[in-house]
Amino acid sequence: MFSLCVYFGYTGGRHLGRKQKMKKSVVWFEESCIKCAMCAEEVPEVIVFEATTGPQLKEGVDIVPHSEKIKRAAQFCPKDSIKHHLQ
Ligand code: SF4
Fold first, then answer.
1. In a 10 Å sphere around its CB, with 0-12 CB exposed, 13-18 middle and 19+ buried, how is residue 82 labelled?
2. I want to staple 69 with a disulfide (CB 3.0 to 4.6 A). Which of 26, 36, 43, 62 is the partner?
3. CB of 5 closer than 6 A to ligand 1?
């Protein structure tokens, strides 16, 4: 089974032309997570941890201003479970 939690954050403030693609930022957790809660401690503004479900992205939070902290949390995740596409 594969669990996926994705949040799209809009990264552009300009009007985009028809052929321009809107850039999206995405973060998700893979099933290899061992629920150590380290990522929620590293980025409490974005990630909430619940013992039953593990790490989840907070609803309605713009992830873009926290990109660097998310990248750092992904770098130090012991199971390489945090995946992202951040601008
Ligand atoms: S740091 Fe990695 S292993 Fe630990 S709870 Fe977060 S995603 Fe899971």
1. buried
2. 43
3. no
Give backbone dihedrals phi and psi of 6, rounded to 5 degrees, phi first: -125, 140
DSSP 10: E
pLDDT tens by residue, 24-80: 899 999 999 999 999 999 999 999 999 999 999 999 999 999 999 999 999 999 999
Residue 73 CA to ligand 1 centre (angstroms): 8
State whether the beta carbon of 72 lies less than 6 angstroms from ligand 1.
Answer: no
CA 80 / ligand 1 centre spacing (Å): 8
Shortest-distance atom of ligand 1 to CA 47: 6
Domain boundaries, the chain: 24-85
Residue 27: per-residue pLDDT: 96
- The fold of 24-85 is Alpha-Beta Plaits (3.30.70)
